[in-house]
Write a structure and sequence with these properties.
The protein has two domains: 191 residues, Ribosomal Protein S5, domain 2; 172 residues, Alpha-Beta Plaits (2-Layer Sandwich). It is an alpha+beta fold. The strands form three sheets. Strands 5-4-6-3-1-13 form a six-stranded mixed beta sheet, with helices on both faces. The chain has a four-stranded antiparallel beta sheet with strand order 10-11-9-12. It has a three-stranded antiparallel beta sheet with strand order 2-7-8, with helices on both faces. The protein is 41% helix and 22% strand. Helix 3 packs across helix 4, helix 6 packs across helix 8 and helix 8 runs antiparallel to helix 9. It binds alpha-D-galactopyranose (GLA). Alpha-D-galactopyranose binds next to helix 5.
């Protein structure tokens, strides 16, 4: 049975009304890590793993949600929706509902949700969940939200409700994905430029199995440090400093903030350079920049961990691998690898051998293809 059939059956246990379906993809970030909240440049792609919501209207003001990932059914009343998180999976739809309710009146709904995105592996399962729910609720309310507005609502849900001060990268990648393309995003202007992934190249992730909790202080701490460094350097965001200007002023910063700023400024230069390399078909150069990004995240931004480092170093030694780095928020999650499309098996073998030898388990490798952004399923 397909996920659609499963969800149709799940929803039938809540209502006998016919469902409409909505999908929202996960994303993987090729390069541009921990710079979105500083208005910087990122290069993610929406991927062919997605969250699907089956939705049917209700005549009352209740929202009920069942998820294939969880046993209990979450429910809340649209008029009593408290602006307080419950600290569970239902925070994502609750937060999204609140964000939408600020924009237009909503109506009651029964929702069934399922996903093919591995949860917590750095593929942005949370943004996909929020956006799929957002598309469903907007459609049941008879509204059509512009993709950018949908992305803003999802970010509001994360920032104001779930409690992660995440940037705009994940929701923008989720709504603007283009099949076969990465997306060069300027996180200040929110301009999105698709960049074709050259023929013969493949993108894979390997999941370390270490689960990060973005609501833990570490992610928000990095963001606060990045903002503090910008303030001390007299700029709105680190994105506003060139590498030359930083070299002139970096002595003004205490050591830790200097390292955080060095990462952000270097990363903001590497992202457009990677996009250019992809446009030229120069995969070796794109991979080299990814490798550099990993070193910077490991040593200057300090968001990697031993498991990710082992995976990255192992991947980089495989013939036909152009580059590898940790991807997403870090402190666990996955690495992303850019490689020749006939080397996926070799990569899997090498990572399995190294990871089993050190940790007694594998780090599952998934081949990802760039997919289109969130949409209704007709
Ligand atoms: C998480 C956040 C994003 C971004 C990345 C790091 O995925 O949700 O906004 O900050 O971490 O690049």
């Amino acid at each position: 049975m397909s996920l659609l059939d499963d969800l149709r059956a799940d929803l039938a246990e809540l209502t006998d009304r016919a469902p409409r379906f909505f999908r929202a993809p996960g994303r993987v970030n090729l390069i541009g890590e921990h710079v979105d909240y500083g208005g910087g440049f990122v290069l993610p792609l929406a991927v062919d793993r997605e969250t699907i919501v089956a939705a049917a209207p209700r005549d009352d003001r209740r929202i009920r949600i069942r998820s294939r990932e969880h046993a209990e059914i979450a429910g809340f009343d649209l008029d009593e929706l408290l602006p307080k998180p419950a600290h569970g999976w239902s925070d994502y739809p609750r937060g999204m509902t609140l964000a939408l309710r600020r924009r237009f009146p909503l109506s009651g709904a029964d929702l069934a949700v399922g996903t093919t995105i591995p949860i917590g592996a750095g593929l942005s399962s949370s943004a996909a969940f929020e956006i799929a729910v957002g598309l469903a609720l907007a459609s049941l309310a008879g509204r059509k939200l512009a993709p950018r507005e949908l992305a803003h609502a999802a970010q509001e849900a994360e920032n104001g409700f779930v409690g992660v001060r995440s940037g705009i990268m994940d929701p923008l990648a989720c709504v603007f994905g283009v099949r076969g393309h990465a997306l060069l995003i300027d996180c200040r202007s929110e301009a999105v430029t698709p960049v074709a992934i050259p023929a013969g190249a493949a993108i894979a992730i390997a999941d370390s199995g270490v689960r990060h909790d973005l609501t833990a202080p570490t992610y928000n701490t990095r963001r606060a440090q990045s903002e503090e460094a910008a303030r001390m350097l007299g700029v709105t965001a680190l994105r506003d400093l060139s590498e030359a200007a930083f070299a002139r002023d970096e002595a003004r910063l205490p050591e830790v903030l200097r390292a955080r700023a060095r990462h952000a400024i270097g990363e903001n230069a590497r992202v457009p350079a990677t996009a250019d390399a992809l446009r030229r078909g120069d995969l070796a150069e794109a991979g080299r920049l990814m490798n550099e990004s990993h070193v910077s995240l490991r040593d200057d931004y300090e968001v990697s961990c031993a498991e990710l480092d082992l995976l990255v170093e192992t991947a980089q030694r495989v013939e036909g691998v152009y580059g590898a780095r940790m991807t997403g928020g870090g402190f666990g999650g996955a690495i992303v690898v850019l490689l020749r499309d006939d080397r996926l098996e070799a990569l899997t073998r090498a990572l399995d051998a190294a990871f089993v030898a050190r940790y007694g388990r594998t780090a599952p490798v998934t081949h990802l293809r760039a997919a289109d952004g969130a949409s209704a399923i007709e």
